[in-house]
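Progress report, Aim 2. The chain analyzed during this reporting quarter is listed below.
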Amino acid sequence: MTDTLKVALIGCGRIAGHHCRSIAEVDGVELAAVCDLEFEKADAYSNEFGVPAFTDYRKMFADVEDIDIAAVITPSGMHFEHGIEVIENFGKHIVMEKPTFMRPEQLQKAYAAADKANTRIFPVFQNRYNKAVRRVKKALETGELGDIRTVSVRLRWCRPQRYYDLAPWRGTFSHDGGALTNQTIHHVDLLRHLGGDVENVNATMRTLGAEIEVEDTTVASFTYQSGAVGTLESTTAARPDDFEASISFVCSEGLAQIGGIAVNDLQVFTPDPDACAENSEDFKGIEGHGAVYGFGHTEMYRDIVADFRGEAEYPVDRHDCLKTLGLLHAFYRSDEAGGWVTVDGNASSARLGRPNEEISDIYRTPKS
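Predicted structure tokens for the chain:
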């Protein structure tokens, strides 16, 4: 690799500033350019970080020739289209925000294209870096907590109609997904990152708090290959505020529960109660960062640098990512089937990620 990796942002929405500031904190990587269809959004980061702004990423790659990596942070339903073009037409590595791609077959096609182009894909699951998550992961791996018996996810948040009315892609199966895909995706990832592979899922979905086509509420049961069982409650129909976002593990040697705004607070850890304070982080009011994003993106970019330097492999590979995406789709497939389904990384929901060209056209950069 070059001495410093150059990163360009495609999409300057809510999380873009967090990427910019995370990149600025890491040695061996720097921001090279920013791009958004709305010039005002890109220009704000251009002025703050002293990099050129573009409304056309094709022109960005032409004008800024030393870009190594593109961080794709456009609406979720555009990830595959944008990512595959960046790989195939421009030969760049990509950082892909959650939920990476909307469908498992898109993920497989993107990785196949990356293999052919000799480029890399770096999925973003920043909450894996949280101190609380790492402490529970260690306790489960070493046997400190014993065998997992039950797992529970509870996300009780508030997203009123005005939230979904902010942009055409919100609240759609094609470009967003519901509460499970957008707000609960990191908890879905942690179900298997911490608990192991999930075998079967039985989910019921409802739309209760807004006029949208996707679900804003899911209640589910699931079983692990290990024999453990679990429950999931995910809703953005809570009113009037966000109340809880937690994941807990009842094990043979104790209980661990992680909560907080972004699984950042180790609330219960019975093997060592003193570990709670030292493994919790305060994400509220993080200077220049959105509280829900925490500190994980900074660690992610450090891992990308380490990967390119040959110091350590990036911790999320294609198989890991495919399993999380397959689990996400299993919840939707179960609701569609009206009962239990087997988790399969290659199986896709009939709804989640289905094409909608009318919405895609809004977020496409016209070819000159």
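DSSP finds 13 helices and 14 strands in the chain. The longest strand covers residues 148-156. These observations will guide the mutagenesis work planned for the next reporting period.
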